[in-house]
User: Fold this.
Amino acid sequence: MLWQSRLTAYVEGGRERLWSAPSRYGRAGLAARRAMHRALRPALAREADAQRLVARVLAEQRLDARLAAIVDDRAAAADSVAVETDVGILLLHAGDEVMTPYIVEHRRWEVAEGAWLRSVLRPGDTVVDCGANVGYFSLLASRAVGPTGAVVAVEPDRDNLRLLRANLWRNGCDNVLVLAAAAHDARGLLALRHNPTNAGDHQVHAAAAAGDVLVPCMALDDVFDDTTVQVVKIDTQGTDHLAIAGLRRTLATSPAAQALVEFWLQGMAERGIDAGAVLAGYRALGRPLLVLGDEGVAVAATDAQIIEAAQAAPGRYINLVLGPAG
Assistant:
């Protein structure tokens, strides 16, 4: 606070000034100033020590993250394959039967989503990648926003995190911050359910079943506070609307932001979630809803058209764009 900085400067102005400089209030003012100095100097010294400690811890955390990335990079070689893609060389899960074989063959992933992201991202943007997996879209965004931009990659699965951090390290993506958690509507713990053949289909649930792993979850509003974001990409296997709910405040302070979200009928139905209610919640944000086409172009649609398109799509899911507010 301003008053704290001014008071600190005043108290730290020097014993000679405090003890010798005349006060406009005379002897009484000089005595009061000396008393204030005696009372505040210990507290301010402790505060300065605490600030130095915080700075040191943060520096150590950044170093730990870099060292962890190097360790992850080395450990990943045993159960991963390195593939040259259109965003850089990626380490992919060797046992994955969906994402890995597709990228090995095509050298890219989810063409429509990638085309849309490339069309809206600008240098200096702040981007949120929820469900970052091994980092394909985090790398794409990192390249697009450049050194003046920032990417927040959110991923709860331990094995995905290992490859994600390694891929960011190997490709020099120093503008990406990794959050090891699930994007949700509140802070807490969720049960992460693994898909043994598809590392992109791990899902979080409120109730745990046999084999599930507890992972932290958070509302990303708690991370961004009043920070303006430009682009949000969410692919969280049936809980995309909850990730959006946890970003309500951020989106309200970022009216020009756009969000790409997966709309998966089966994933919502399995959780007892009404698809129409999800769409109503999106529209309550005051943003237009658009369906993302195969070429990466988003077209406005009604709720009925959105649900019909999802029902007709392979896997019963499509991608929606929540456009700029107003």
Notes: Confidence is low (pLDDT under 50) at residues 1-16. DSSP finds 13 helices and 14 strands in the chain.
